[in-house]
Amino acid sequence: MPQPLTYLKETASQTAGPYVHIGLIPAMAGFDIFEKNFSNVLVTPNTEGERITLEGKVLDGTGTPLRDVLLEIWQANANGRYNHPADRSAGALNEEFRGWGRAGSDFESGLVTFETIKPGAITDKAGRKCAPHVNVWIVARGINIGLNTRLYFSDEEAANAADPVLNLIEQPSRRSTLIAKRTERAGKIVYSFTINLQGPEETVFFDV
Amino acid sequence: MNAQAPALRDPRLNRPEPLTPPLGDGGFFQRDRSIHPPAHAPGYKSSVLRSPRQALLSLENSISEITGPVFGHNDLGPLDNDLIRNYAKDGDPIGERIVVHGRVVDETGRGVPNTLVEFWQANAGGRYRHKKDTYLAPIDPNFGGCGRALTDETGYYYFRTVKPGPYPWRNYVNSWRPAHIHFSVFGSGFAQRLITQMYFEGDPLIPVCPILTTIPDKDALDRLVAPLDLNASTPFDSLAYRFDIVLRGQRSTYFENRTAGN
């Protein structure tokens, strides 16, 4: 008999519940407890890159915005480099940009916003350029395991058309569910997005 | 059974020259979806309208998934892992004092060092300090109900708190949540990101909870139940519960000079 191939099993996921704010964004739960809080603002005055606002909603199967959802984003800096030791690509690191933020949706409108910069393009293992994108992770009451998706940018048409991940999506019509639309509002660049959990416009989610 | 990780020593740890493996040699083990709750679990009613119905798109890990945010001690305050003190105004919180401790390891049993673990819970009466929680149990003026910790170089974490109470919720008319603490864990790459809940050994509400039973695999469910750990208790102060968390395994080899990358 051969040696046993023993690995531990990943811990099972559970819903973050309706009160996820208590642990992760206590100010939204209505109290202040930590000296330093994590937030939806990823930039400091010294962060390099084009300032953008990401603004969107997550809709349930009836088209109603989730008003208790929490989103986290993870992205490369303006040079296309992630602030993490495993990224040893050529783009310069920017110490003023961790590349990560979290936001809860507004309890009334369901609106989620992030203040960040537009990420640069990264290069994949095969040496292909990937279109600039923001990785998104979604948890809420009723979501049993966090959902992974990405946001791409509407003004990167050529890069999006060549992106190896977008091209993995069989139905071209579904690729558009990952594209945030660029607009200008009071001098600020705003990218708006909608994440549909169900329905004909269901967003593409990833098994990463 | 609670996963107990062997303390593995890698013979390469004493290697004098730092080595950097080529980019993209790693990636995480594929997620075994059969031990996780399905998105659509009708017994847990909130999942019905909030679960994707299309197949997930399988994506080979790229640098976007292998990397993730890095946290340090500068992100934390000195009382962040002490829920008995971090919101106390004029006394101790009401309830049974406990210590919760354990290790964050990956599927190979390797500790996940310097990773952020966040936790939140109801108070001893089963009420959350949240403006949306209207349950009749009183708010405890000395209890916030949240905290966070960084694991040490072996993946070990601990905090102290009071044992949360069970509470009713609107699923079935008589649905009650077993006592539980929510955990949020990062790991070293965004693909390891996990939110889960820890339950307490011996709680009779465990087998009838519609949220817990979304997990189809009995062993996976048992691994969310923390055993009483008398050896770690503080005499005449608090009992202890041990909760080990397993994140996805990583294909790359462990190198001491880039532990955050592993």
What does this 3D model show about the protein?
The complex is a heterodimer of chains A (about 210) and B (about 260). With about 210 residues, chain A is mainly beta. In chain A, about 10% of the residues lie in helices and about 30% in strands. In chain A, strands 3-2-7-8-9-10-1-4 form an eight-stranded mixed β-sheet. Chain A starts with 19 loop residues before the first helix and ends with a strand. Chain B is built from two helices and twelve strands. The relative contact order of chain B is 0.24. The chains are: A mainly beta (about 210), B mainly beta (about 260). At the A-B interface, helix 1, strand 7, strand 8 and strand 11 of A face strand 1, helix 1, strand 3, strand 9 and helix 2 of B. Strand 11 of chain A pairs parallel with strand 1 of chain B, so a sheet runs across the interface.
Query: What kind of sheet is the major sheet of chain A?
Result: 8 strands, mixed
Largest sheet of chain B: 5 strands, mixed
Assembly form of the protein: heterodimer
Q: How many E strands of chain A?
A: 11
- What is the helical fraction of chain B, as a range of percent? under 10%
Q: What percentage of the residues of chain A does DSSP assign to strands (E)?
A: 25-35%
Q: Which spans of chain A have pLDDT < 50 for at least 5 consecutive residues?
A: none
Q: State Rg of chain A.
A: 18 Å
The string of secondary-structure elements of chain A, in order, is HHEEEEEEEEHHEEE
Distance between the termini of chain A: 34 Å
Number of helices of chain B: 2
H/I helix tally of chain A: 4
Query: Which percent range describes the beta-strand content of chain B?
Result: 15-25%
Strand order of the largest sheet of chain A: 3-2-7-8-9-10-1-4
From the N-terminal CA to the C-terminal CA of chain B, the straight-line distance is 26 Å
